[in-house]
Amino acid sequence: MLRVNAIQRSDYVVLALVLLAAMLTRFINPGVVEFRHDEAMLSLLAHDAADGNFPLTGIPSSVGIPNSPVSVYVMALPYALTSDPFFATAFVAALNVIGVGLLWLLAHRYFSPRVALFAGVIYAVSPWAALYSRKIWAQDFHTPFVLMALLLGLYGFGENANSVGKRWAQMLCLPVFLLALQIHFAALALLPLYAVLLWIGRKQISWPALALSFLLTVLTLVPFALGLAQTLDQDPNRLTNVMNRRGDGLSLSPNAALYTAQLATGIGLEQEISPENPDALNAALGWMPILWSVLGIATLFGLLARDFNLRLRLLIVLWALLPLIVFTPTWTTVYRHYFIASIPAYCLFIGLGMKWLFDRVPSKPLVQAVFLGILAGAAISQAVYWAKLLHYVDMNTVSGFATPLHFLLDVRDELAQHDDLLIVTDGIEILYDQEPAIWSVMLRDTTDCVRAISGSGFVVFPEHPFAAVIAPNARDSALDGLYVNDEAQIFPLRPDEGTYTISTFDTAPEWNGPTLTPIVPTQFDNGAQLVGYHLEPSIMFLEWSLPGRVEGDLQYFGHFIDTNGEKIGQRDSSFWPGRYWCAGDRLITSIDIALPNDTQMLRVGMYRFEGGGFVNSSVIDDAGNPVSTWVDIPLTESQSS
Predict the structure, then answer these.
(1) Nearest-CA neighbor of 127 among 338, 13, 295?
(2) Which region holds residue 480: left if phi is over 0, alpha if psi is between -120 and 50, else beta?
(3) Number of helices (H) and strands (E), helices first, in the chain?
(4) Cβ–Cβ contacts within 10 Å for residue 367, how many?
(5) How many domains does the chain have?
(6) Quick count: other Cβ atoms within 10 Å of Cβ 521?
(7) Does residue 4 sit within a domain?
(8) 316 inside domain
(9) Which of the two ends of the chain, N or C, has the fewest CB atoms closer than 10 A to its terminal CB?
(10) Whole-structure pTM over 0.90, yes or no?
């Protein structure tokens, strides 16, 4: 069984210093953190979960299938207290500070106080660990749960004692481990560690505890199993498509080994932060690759060290190397964040290697001081590098680090004063486009209606006073300045990154397009009213009056009818997403067409995709009774020519 080191009073001082270092790297410049589309979508789902609407899947993964909803459930905790994403990012940082403490505890209890000191300090200041500890990203908060599961496993299966606490630990180890691994798929590479824990404690397994453990584990998997079943029901080819992605077959890639080496030493961060110009970043920050390579040497000595339990050695080696083994074959694209859960293992081997070397250098004070000075120099230089890096990305635009959150919060504080908001951006699909997702989170509790348009296909005129924000990624010619006035406020971002421009309107601006022909309002059962149109040979304008927000998205069509009542052409397109509809909005849709010369009538209708097919929206009368599935609009000679 494993030897256990008791914690002495003096050890708490060391732990406090390690946690302080972890807090400094994870909470320094807290506003300099990314908040992009993935963070926003996870936040939206977490908001829903905090409101009691628990999703069965998380956001889509990089391999094409949805993530487990466990990451959503974790992030629902801070969002149950406040809708502020700044608080949620602090929650993630706090979880990772706890993770540093858990690594210190594991190293102290099962190795030695000296190993705990070395490993804890390196993990606290590692720039890679700090980078992946600060934002609302599933990859950034699974590691503390992995550490907790390993501690439970080592206590429950590895220690020579018979107690109620050990049985509880055996029962909770696998469920906690599976919760951690569900937060992000890449951590599933570590699943064999549980088999090693069972092997370590095979002679003292409590079978009732293990049975309950498997039952709890199944319960943790139920939501995702249901969600995955729903996904495959809607798209039966989803898994097949994922398997067929790598059409070039399997090969061996050096990237997994490169990422392992980088995350173990702290080297290579410039390739993540500024991949287009890494040399400029290093020149500005003054990195120290030679000094940091000492950590790589220490890692190798730690791997070779034999002065600890063989079974524990196997567990730690697999913890460090399983991602390397799993992701060296190119069965999927490999990213650095797939290796995050093994960073504590790298730090543990650094601690073991440093202890092994320290125990073997001459015991003269000067020699030992030099030895410790090298380690301290590596740790301090990494902490300083991290602080300088945050300042650099806050002041300079780099390709690998998006607009820091505090810039967005400044814009939010202004927009939160308005009940209605219109965002002009480069895309309006909340599942794929950044700005609609970000501002739906930022303004969830302050703004009644958050709309988005891209300057192509839709123009909206709110009935009530509103604010319009031109996002930095909006097209230069979007809507020809329709939503900018002389009192516009400018919120600059980093150099060459653009600005947010906010204009407020008491009444909607005037439509600056062609004159629209009014028709008797036609009511559809989804609440939308068709009230006007304009046809040109190459474009069709339709004017609508909208109700409040509706669930789901719609399509609309224009059929071109000749004198015999035959359809001689048509054009279908996506309608403005229902999540953006606000009561009283006037919407003008436009779409390119090829209008047949002998068109005598325009037929307009709406439908939605449902159950693998489409369902038409009905035209209804004043009593709400369906009368047709479209409206026919006779054209004059001038309108059809």
Answers:
(1) 295
(2) left
(3) 20, 17
(4) 11
(5) 3
(6) 12
(7) no
(8) yes
(9) C
(10) yes
Give a yes or no: residue 153 inside a domain.
yes
Do strands 499-505 and 517-524 pair parallel, antiparallel, or not at all (unpaired)? unpaired
Q: Quick one: 130 and 269 in the same domain?
A: yes
Q: Are residues 446 and 534 in the same domain?
A: no
CB 626, CB 620: distance < 8 Å? yes
Q: Which two tokens stand for residue 459?
A: 């123009």
Whether residue 345 contacts residue 322, with contact meaning beta carbons closer than 8 Å, is answered with no
SS3 of 300-335: the string is HHHHHCCCCCHHHHHHHHHHHHHHHHHHCECCCCCC
Task: Name residues whose C-beta falls within 8 Å of residue 359's C-beta, 6 or more positions apart in sequence.
Answer: none
- Quick one: which of 641, 635, 637, 541 has its CA closest to 593? 541
d(CA 340, CA 317): 15
Helix 365-395 vs helix 278-285: crossing angle, to nearest 10: 120
- 267, 261 contact by CB (below 8 A): yes
Residue pointed to by tokens 């080819």 = 237
| Nearest CA among 483, 487, 486, 445 for reference residue 466 | 483
DSSP 420: E
Question: Is residue 244 situated within a structural domain?
Answer: no
192-216: per-residue pLDDT in tens? 999 999 999 998 899 999 999 999 9
Do 492 and 527 lie in a common domain?
A: no
* Boundaries of domain holding 601: 517-634
Q: What is the pLDDT of residues 479-500, one digit of tens each?
A: 778 999 999 999 999 999 999 9
